[in-house]
What we know:
The complex is a heterotrimer.
Chain A: H1 20-34, H2 37-40, E1 54-62, E2 68-69, E3 72-73, H3 74-87, E4 92-103, H4 108-125, E5 129-137, E6 145-155, E7 171-174, H5 180-188, E8 194-195, H6 206-215, E9 221-223, H7 229-241, E10 244-248, H8 256-265, E11 279-282, H9 284-295, E12 304-310, E13 317-320, E14 326-328
Helix pairs in contact in A: 1-4, 3-4, 6-9
Chain B: E1 5-13, E2 16-21, E3 24-29, E4 41-45, E5 48-52, H1 55-74
Antiparallel strand pairs in B: 1-2, 1-4, 2-3, 4-5
Chain C: H1 10-23, E1 30-36, H2 37-45, H3 48-51, E2 56-63, H4 71-83, E3 86-91, H5 105-110, E4 115-118, H6 121-130, E5 135-142, H7 147-160, E6 165-171, H8 174-184, E7 191-194, H9 196-202, H10 208-214, E8 218-220, H11 225-240, E9 246-248, H12 260-269, E10 270-278, E11 282-291, H13 300-303, H14 319-323, H15 347-350, H16 355-371
Parallel strand pairs in C: 1-2, 1-7, 3-4, 3-5, 5-6, 7-8, 8-9
Antiparallel strand pairs in C: 10-11
Helix pairs in contact in C: 1-11, 2-16, 7-12
Amino acid sequence: MSKLDTKNGVIEMGHGSGGRTSAALIDELFVRHFDNALLDQGNDQAAFDIPAGRMVISTDGHVITPLFFPGGDIGSLSVHGTVNDVAMSGAKPLYLSASFILEEGFPLADLERIVISMAKASKDAGVPVVTGDTKVVERGKGDGVFITTTGIGIVPEGINISGDLAQPDDVIIVSGCIGDHGIAILSSREGLQFATTIESDSAALHGLVADMVAAAPAIRCLRDPTRGGLATTLNELARQSKVGMRIRETSIPIRAEVKGACELLGLDPLYIANEGKLVCIVPAKDAEALLAVMHKHPQGQTAAIIGTVCEDAQHMVIMETAFGGNRVVDWLAGEQLPRIC
Amino acid sequence: MCLAVPARIVELSGDTAIVDLDGIRKETSTLLLDEVAVGDYVLIHVGYALERIDPLEAEKTLALFAELRAQDAES
Amino acid sequence: MKYVDEFRDGDTARALAKVIHAEVNPERDYRLMEFCGGHTHAIFRFGIVDLMPKNIRFIHGPGCPVCVLPAGRIEAAIRLVEEQDVILCTYADLMRVPAGKRDSLQKAKARGADIRMIYSSSDALALARENPGKQVVFFAIGFETTTPPTAAAIKIAQAEGLSNFSVFCNHVETPPAMMTILTAGDAKIDGILGPSHVSTIIGSRAYAECCDTYHVPLVIAGFEPLDVIQSVLMLVRQINTGKAVVENQYTRAVSETGNEKAKALMNEVFEQRALFEWRGLGVLPDSAVQIRSEFTDFDAEKCFAMPEIATADIKGCICPAVLRGMNNPDECKLFGTACTPEDPKGACMVSSEGACAAYYSYGRYKAAEART
């Protein structure tokens, strides 16, 4: 078996051909670092028993640029993202699969760095990557690497969490400071060049969710505000549940630096992506107790109640501004872009 | 138009400054201004410092606001 | 944030609003034009309208360089980047503005055109240095706040001998646009909230002619909501006493003569353009600038023989009337149906500070409020 040159080597078309070069890539990078019994079996699939209960499955494609950013990389992001999507149903995530589309010419050193990061995220979360796939596309046909992860989990008995269950008078909670991930990404992109200590908040939230669900089984909705930020998630939930929402700007946790970056670039922090935060809608009677439990968890220390659900035939999300007026927090139209005007 | 934000100069070097806005640092050109010093607050627009913020005038405006708040509180 | 948060205090806003409520004459309307799109944005973002008495009406002015850029200029830029091998650098604000035939810079980029979004003219210079084999064209827009940074970039390019950098100049001027609106008279403006940062550059004296000629008071308002509200109060007071002078509320950043160094730089690089088309205001004389002949090597219109392209606005779109303050966005047949932020038909809906975009969110909230 040829040895992989992870120092100076690059991905070649042969790595996707299924022959010896493919096998070397899979064994020396993926199997080696992901390091679990199911993967070691060397099958094209993983077979396992699962506990009784409702199964949940979720999948996410990751195409982020840049691949490496303060606080994470495409690898750790792909683990956290799917673990979180599974966890947002209240489920305990069990296993992950990972498929890689690699571009011819992509440095093996970078790939190894990504895989090591993924393996660490997976191990820390306790959710192994048990099966996977690699394909190689010609130079120019891929952005270095695309990763798709799929995850499965089991929802505990008696838990029913879904985006269409919010009711008027329910309380809206956010688990921590918004906008960190998006600002961290922007700061590493060409053209904006500002220095900041802000790091992506990319993190696995299933531990926090487990504590939350145990403390407040009547939780109605959970969702992580990724693309499009908090505003988009609130609008999605409002539409799904056919309700309105009233939130308070002064209650929304946000770091001073994130606020500053947004002012500088003319961006609205409500629409900036988060990768380690969740929005929770819970019956009012359970809210304070739930908040207390969240504060005890490392991922929920700055959790805050930001508003309430109400009747609203237009399904509008309205925010009382710090200034004292009201404004509509609307759906995003297209991509939010920095502005000079 | 013309989104401009006040930021504090923390470093100066020729026609370039590093400004700080609550921990965000950005390189900015001071080509449009003659005398600026570290510690000054300037308005930043498209990567350029447009004008120094006059702290005394700012204080005057804020004092006016404080007066109004006091009057309002009394009534 | 210093010099920001203090000027966003809610208690002060309410106190100021009370004074305004007490001083307005209930028998009349006060039609105040906020010239600058940034002020339009602030008025809606901070819910200032909610705090004001009902007889104060904000008329949204054309101070949005994105909104007043004719579709033909965008189409010319698209043609340039698609037909010639250039890198086109643009502020992100322009990406989604409709050009003719439902095209846009964003759509052209999707088709493969090399269009780069930048934050500063210095970024365009950097791209030129990094790509010596390609021509880099900077799509320059903006009022007098943004013109000096473009002038600076041209001077730097000249000093460095950059042979692959040029500017597609669309810089426009504030006082001529104000004069045009006041001349037309159809918007019936009682007072003007003057732009914050344009004034930083041109100084408060630059508006004297407007005030004197048309007997309309003008208050230069700072950028934060308290600045805007205080300026409204100053206008109300002038209107009530029949005064019509230029007052400066933004004293912490605006002086009488403005930024002399920036003005000198502008004058060195640019000269008056005889005529320039403004979307909504028509072709205006002496309202825009062009690059002087000494810097012709950096003038994209000359280097690439860019043609004049006339493009008609979409049928039914009343952006011109909205920009002149004659109609409200909700009086446009396309508003909220054919024309939405997701699928804008005119510039006023694309720009986040365009009157239509501001109305779209705000108006929906007001309608919802009316229902409950």
